[in-house]
Amino acid sequence: RFFYLSHFTKEETDLEKDTDDDNKKVVAEIMARCFVPRLITTTSWEGFHFVGQEIRITEGMDCYGAVVWPSALVLCYFLETNVKHYNMVDKNVIEIGAGTGLVSIVASLLGAHVIATDLPELLGNLRYNISRNTKMKCKHLPQVKELSWGVALDENFPRSSNNFDYILAADVVYAHPFLEELLITFDHLCKETTVILWVMKFRLEKENNFVDRFKELFDLEEISSFPSLNIKLYKAMKKSRRSA
Ligand SMILES: C[S@@+](CC[C@H](N)C(=O)[O-])C[C@H]1O[C@@H](n2cnc3c(N)ncnc32)[C@H](O)[C@@H]1O
After folding, report:
1. Which strands make up the sheet holding 195-201, listed edge to edge?
2. pTM score
3. What is the pLDDT of residues 92-104, one digit of tens each?
4. Ligand 1 pocket: which residues have CB below 6 Å?
């Protein structure tokens, strides 16, 4: 259901049109996973349907971590519909820039050991959403930890004990001054066998160039593209020493 990209020749324009239609269908299906409460209450939350669960996400006060961004929906949908190739059961997973926590919740519901991380000011709301949506529903209770990109990585996430099967990241590249620190963080958390699943929303050229910087350290594979959302889903692994 989650289709893989290929490059089409001119003779294959019919196929390209089908792909466009498929793309629109998938985007519509991804967006349909979101719903709003029927009753207007004092607490604002957004609802999502993933892994057969109704997930309620409370919005925070911080402007970027406050809402669930479309990239998060794309990653959740990908995880849910690709369990054969990307099985989360008992896997060690860390999410960086987790925001309101939806991706970490979905990975936990799919059976992973999850550490959801973000800036300190985001952790209260993140903890609340994660606890509310995973208690008694998950094989492994997820953890919430502070991880400010590039800060105290050796103290808080020593390389010798990092053993992540997956690093998840949705919409972590935008106009913020920590792109270099973000790259350092990916590198720090990543072992040779770690798979990064990263959903990138393309906005301004300056930030979009991050993809080229990223490619210097990681082998990057485009798994899916959603032109109507300006979003791409990538899989990446650390460049082996031989190819670096
Ligand atoms: C656009 S939001 C995406 C949130 C979530 N992944 C989603 O897609 O809904 C970017 C996230 O990155 C986090 N972030 C920004 N700068 C950061 C930094 N220096 N260290 C750690 N997290 C950071 C923000 O707090 C926010 O949660």
Report:
1. 143-146, 113-118, 92-96, 166-170, 195-201, 231-238, 218-226
2. 0.91
3. 999 999 999 999 9
4. 64-65, 68-69, 71-72, 97-100, 118-119, 122, 147-149, 170-172, 174, 176, 178
